[in-house]
Amino acid sequence: MAASLEQLRRCHFAVDLGAARTRVYVKGAGLVVDQPSVAAVNTRNGALIAVGEFAERMTGRTPAYIRVVRPVSGGTVVDIEMAQRMLRHLLGEGMRRTLRRKTWLRAAACTPHDADPLAQRATVETLVGLGARRVELVDTLIAAAVGCGLPVERAEATMIMMCGAAATQVAVLSLGSIVNAERVPVGGEAIDHAIVQHLRQAHALVLPSQSVRPLQLALSGNGLTPQGPASAEIHGRDVATGLARSVRIDTAAVREAIQTPLTAVLDGIYRVLRECPPDLVADLVDRGIMMVGGSALLPGLDQMLREATGMPVHIAERPELCAVQGLGAMLEGRIEPLILDPLGTC
Ligand SMILES: Nc1ncnc2c1ncn2[C@@H]1O[C@H](COP(=O)(O)OP(=O)(O)OP(=O)(O)O)[C@@H](O)[C@H]1O
Ligand SMILES: [Mg+2]
């Protein structure tokens, strides 16, 4: 973790800028924003038309002069100015006024595990544009581990798997730090993409841009598990004719299409385990893997990991909120500092 707990305790608000959703925690007020990281812009005059849920609903349905943009991509802020404007609107005038009152506004933000200096700088600049005089960065894996209540500060191993939209990050933690971690650029978006590609190839069907999530749910919430109906009716547009068409798809084939990106995730877990010191692996066999992030909710993913690794697998409560709640806990001072000198010799 780059920032110390003491520095984090002095922060006034914390931001988790994700590829899919933006979340903001304000000290004393709790989670005040949890909205899609989307903005709709009028291309004629550059004005912001909508942000969050409203903007996301516009995706694929806009006239030529409205563009729906995602200022965060692959876990990194790619359009700093747009990210600032989006955050300002999501926070709202009232909350912005509360923050402006602080004499020396401090912010905390989580960044992906192996974020390069440029990506970290983009996050810092985004928050500086919002008025922050100082920005503390926290590894998203540590924030999420704290948020889901893992005993990160103890001298025993815990394994966390963060299943986000853009990436899956896996880490073994001990004594408040990361012992070993991997970031695989496969997340919920890649799973959605695999479903879209499958329907295009197998059924010559183009899906409306927002219907992939409903499709996953149309597999009757059974996701990767074979329970539920063997087929489902899907509406889309024919690739060749462009006309609306409905097809009955085989849910087993969709499950198969989802399996491909998941193999990369499994490889990442194996790599982390392989390079982990044996003492820590022994701890992990009892404790297992804690899944956090929105994609942890994909039905059957936990069961698949259980079978592949032979380890216990748990899904955190509200997995998508763990990282921001962890930051919040650090801001509020609810985290015990790590005692590095138990003998009191210093
Ligand atoms: N019930 C669900 N079943 C399957 N997938 C889900 C479910 N709910 C959310 N997701 C997926 O979780 C992802 C969003 O997770 P999360 O909010 O953790 O992402 P993020 O923090 O914005 O992304 P990242 O951390 O990668 O930048 C989306 O890709 C979404 O499709
Ligand atoms: Mg995230």
Automatic annotation (TrEMBL):
<dbReference type="InterPro" id="IPR056546">
    <property type="entry name" value="MreB_MamK-like"/>
</dbReference>
<protein>
    <recommendedName>
        <fullName>Cell shape-determining protein MreB</fullName>
    </recommendedName>
</protein>
<dbReference type="InterPro" id="IPR004753">
    <property type="entry name" value="MreB"/>
</dbReference>
<dbReference type="InterPro" id="IPR043129">
    <property type="entry name" value="ATPase_NBD"/>
</dbReference>
<dbReference type="Pfam" id="PF06723">
    <property type="entry name" value="MreB_Mbl"/>
</dbReference>
<keyword id="KW-0067">ATP-binding</keyword>
<keyword id="KW-0133">Cell shape</keyword>
<keyword id="KW-0963">Cytoplasm</keyword>
<comment type="similarity">
    <text>Belongs to the FtsA/MreB family.</text>
</comment>
<feature type="binding site">
    <location>
        <begin position="294"/>
        <end position="297"/>
    </location>
    <ligand>
        <name>ATP</name>
    </ligand>
</feature>
<keyword id="KW-0547">Nucleotide-binding</keyword>
<comment type="function">
    <text>Forms membrane-associated dynamic filaments that are essential for cell shape determination. Acts by regulating cell wall synthesis and cell elongation, and thus cell shape. A feedback loop between cell geometry and MreB localization may maintain elongated cell shape by targeting cell wall growth to regions of negative cell wall curvature.</text>
</comment>
<comment type="subunit">
    <text>Forms polymers.</text>
</comment>
